[in-house]
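Hello, quick one for you while I still have it in my head. A protein chain has come my way and I'm curious about its shape. Can you walk me through what the C-alpha coordinates say about the fold? No rush at all, and the record is pasted right below.
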Amino acid sequence: GGNLQLIGSKPDGSPWMVGITNPFSPQEILFSLSLRDTAVVTSGSYQRYFETEGVVYHHILDPKTGYPANNGLSSVTVITPDGAWADGFSTALYVMGTEEALRFAKTQKDVGFILITDNQKIYVSSSLKSAVHSTVAGNYTWIYL
Protein backbone atom coordinates (compact mmCIF):
# COMPACT_ATOMS: atom_id res chain seq x y z
CA GLY A 1 0.00 0.00 0.00
CA GLY A 2 0.96 3.62 -0.01
CA ASN A 3 -0.01 6.99 1.40
CA LEU A 4 0.37 10.32 -0.39
CA GLN A 5 -0.73 13.81 0.56
CA LEU A 6 -0.83 16.14 -2.44
CA ILE A 7 -0.51 19.85 -1.71
CA GLY A 8 -1.62 22.21 -4.43
CA SER A 9 -0.49 21.62 -8.00
CA LYS A 10 2.87 21.12 -9.68
CA PRO A 11 4.95 24.31 -10.12
CA ASP A 12 3.63 24.71 -13.68
CA GLY A 13 0.03 24.65 -12.37
CA SER A 14 -0.80 21.21 -13.72
CA PRO A 15 -2.15 18.43 -11.48
CA TRP A 16 0.06 15.82 -9.87
CA MET A 17 0.12 12.41 -11.56
CA VAL A 18 -0.25 9.52 -9.11
CA GLY A 19 0.40 5.96 -10.26
CA ILE A 20 -1.81 3.13 -9.02
CA THR A 21 0.14 -0.12 -8.79
CA ASN A 22 -1.05 -3.19 -10.65
CA PRO A 23 -1.69 -5.66 -7.79
CA PHE A 24 -1.23 -8.58 -10.21
CA SER A 25 2.13 -7.28 -11.45
CA PRO A 26 3.44 -4.87 -8.76
CA GLN A 27 6.32 -3.61 -10.89
CA GLU A 28 3.73 -2.04 -13.26
CA ILE A 29 1.56 1.03 -12.93
CA LEU A 30 -1.97 -0.06 -13.82
CA PHE A 31 -3.15 3.50 -14.41
CA SER A 32 -2.51 7.00 -13.18
CA LEU A 33 -4.69 9.72 -11.70
CA SER A 34 -4.33 13.48 -12.20
CA LEU A 35 -5.14 15.12 -8.86
CA ARG A 36 -4.64 18.24 -6.73
CA ASP A 37 -4.95 19.01 -3.00
CA THR A 38 -5.97 15.58 -1.77
CA ALA A 39 -4.73 12.42 -0.11
CA VAL A 40 -4.38 9.14 -1.98
CA VAL A 41 -4.11 5.99 0.14
CA THR A 42 -3.96 2.40 -1.11
CA SER A 43 -4.29 -0.82 0.89
CA GLY A 44 -3.53 -4.14 -0.75
CA SER A 45 -2.30 -7.67 -0.23
CA TYR A 46 0.48 -7.63 -2.83
CA GLN A 47 3.39 -5.97 -0.99
CA ARG A 48 3.62 -7.19 2.60
CA TYR A 49 3.11 -10.93 2.73
CA PHE A 50 4.84 -14.26 3.16
CA GLU A 51 4.11 -17.72 1.86
CA THR A 52 4.23 -20.95 3.86
CA GLU A 53 3.34 -24.37 2.48
CA GLY A 54 1.69 -22.80 -0.54
CA VAL A 55 -0.52 -20.44 1.49
CA VAL A 56 -0.04 -16.67 1.21
CA TYR A 57 -0.47 -14.61 4.38
CA HIS A 58 -0.67 -10.83 3.99
CA HIS A 59 -0.73 -8.09 6.61
CA ILE A 60 -4.39 -6.94 6.46
CA LEU A 61 -6.20 -8.97 9.07
CA ASP A 62 -9.91 -9.64 9.33
CA PRO A 63 -10.83 -8.90 12.96
CA LYS A 64 -13.57 -11.55 12.83
CA THR A 65 -11.12 -14.37 12.10
CA GLY A 66 -7.70 -13.05 13.09
CA TYR A 67 -6.41 -14.21 9.70
CA PRO A 68 -5.61 -12.21 6.58
CA ALA A 69 -8.75 -10.89 4.90
CA ASN A 70 -9.64 -13.14 1.97
CA ASN A 71 -12.65 -11.60 0.31
CA GLY A 72 -12.04 -11.05 -3.39
CA LEU A 73 -10.25 -7.69 -3.23
CA SER A 74 -6.66 -7.15 -4.32
CA SER A 75 -6.41 -3.41 -3.75
CA VAL A 76 -8.46 -0.50 -2.38
CA THR A 77 -7.58 3.16 -2.97
CA VAL A 78 -9.33 6.04 -1.22
CA ILE A 79 -9.00 9.65 -2.41
CA THR A 80 -10.10 12.44 -0.05
CA PRO A 81 -8.46 15.56 1.45
CA ASP A 82 -8.15 13.93 4.90
CA GLY A 83 -5.21 11.50 4.78
CA ALA A 84 -5.96 9.91 8.15
CA TRP A 85 -9.55 9.20 7.11
CA ALA A 86 -8.35 7.76 3.80
CA ASP A 87 -5.83 5.53 5.57
CA GLY A 88 -8.37 4.07 7.97
CA PHE A 89 -11.05 3.56 5.37
CA SER A 90 -8.81 2.00 2.72
CA THR A 91 -7.99 -0.76 5.21
CA ALA A 92 -11.57 -1.05 6.48
CA LEU A 93 -12.97 -1.30 2.94
CA TYR A 94 -10.40 -3.94 2.08
CA VAL A 95 -11.52 -6.03 5.06
CA MET A 96 -15.22 -5.49 4.20
CA GLY A 97 -14.88 -7.21 0.85
CA THR A 98 -16.22 -6.23 -2.53
CA GLU A 99 -19.98 -6.11 -1.98
CA GLU A 100 -19.98 -4.36 1.39
CA ALA A 101 -17.23 -1.94 0.28
CA LEU A 102 -19.20 -1.04 -2.85
CA ARG A 103 -22.34 -0.39 -0.79
CA PHE A 104 -20.39 1.91 1.49
CA ALA A 105 -18.54 3.67 -1.35
CA LYS A 106 -21.82 4.54 -3.06
CA THR A 107 -22.93 6.47 0.05
CA GLN A 108 -19.81 8.66 0.10
CA LYS A 109 -20.33 11.33 -2.56
CA ASP A 110 -17.30 13.50 -1.69
CA VAL A 111 -14.78 10.65 -1.54
CA GLY A 112 -13.14 8.83 -4.44
CA PHE A 113 -12.77 5.05 -4.32
CA ILE A 114 -10.99 2.51 -6.51
CA LEU A 115 -11.54 -1.17 -5.77
CA ILE A 116 -9.59 -3.77 -7.73
CA THR A 117 -10.92 -7.31 -7.36
CA ASP A 118 -9.09 -10.61 -7.61
CA ASN A 119 -10.95 -11.29 -10.88
CA GLN A 120 -9.61 -8.06 -12.44
CA LYS A 121 -12.66 -5.84 -12.10
CA ILE A 122 -11.83 -2.21 -11.39
CA TYR A 123 -14.57 -0.24 -9.65
CA VAL A 124 -14.01 3.53 -9.81
CA SER A 125 -16.08 6.37 -8.36
CA SER A 126 -17.67 8.34 -11.18
CA SER A 127 -16.13 11.49 -9.69
CA LEU A 128 -12.70 10.15 -10.68
CA LYS A 129 -13.53 9.26 -14.28
CA SER A 130 -11.88 12.37 -15.74
CA ALA A 131 -8.78 11.86 -13.54
CA VAL A 132 -7.99 8.33 -14.81
CA HIS A 133 -5.20 8.15 -17.42
CA SER A 134 -2.81 5.70 -19.05
CA THR A 135 -4.58 2.42 -18.57
CA VAL A 136 -2.44 -0.59 -19.45
CA ALA A 137 -3.51 -3.32 -21.78
CA GLY A 138 -5.02 -6.28 -20.04
CA ASN A 139 -8.14 -8.21 -19.38
CA TYR A 140 -9.65 -5.70 -16.96
CA THR A 141 -13.30 -4.74 -16.63
CA TRP A 142 -13.80 -1.07 -15.70
CA ILE A 143 -16.97 -0.23 -13.78
CA TYR A 144 -17.77 3.36 -12.81
CA LEU A 145 -20.00 3.82 -9.75
